[in-house]
Design a protein that fits this description.
122 residues; mainly alpha
Length: 122
């Protein structure tokens, strides 16, 4: 139960962290270049990933056979790629804005998978 609470708290923190960093990117804030701004989100995301793996392993004996978990895993990878484009690799503000919208869409898709355990792609 505590692991699930940690996981949900990290979901909230990662959403807030991503949103704040997007704001700083779009307003050209120098805060985006600070060391803490670059390290703290990775700590949150590492705890989020570790708690998610622990939950999957503890709740599902053969977790790799759960189609909804595979969908969630693929969506997390897509979210990470889009987030990287928004924060680091986007060449123009338009590209960053579009990938930010996409990242939010994928984030909420991940939440929907977690709640309803449905699959679309696999």
């Amino acid at each position: 139960m505590i692991i699930k609470f940690i996981h949900i708290a990290c979901v909230f923190l990662t959403f807030c962290s991503f949103s704040l960093r997007c704001y700083w990117v779009f307003t050209d804030s120098p805060v985006i270049q600070r060391k803490a701004t670059k390290i703290i989100p990775h700590i949150i995301d590492t705890v989020l990933l570790a708690s998610g793996v622990l939950i999957a392993v503890n709740l599902y004996e053969e977790f790799y056979r759960q189609p909804w978990l595979l969908n969630k895993f693929v969506a997390v990878i897509v979210y990470i790629i889009l987030g990287s484009i928004v924060i680091k690799y986007g060449k123009t503000k338009t590209v960053r804005k579009l990938t930010c919208i996409g990242a939010y869409g994928v984030f909420f898709y991940i939440i929907a998978i977690a709640i309803y355990k449905f699959t679309i792609f696999f």
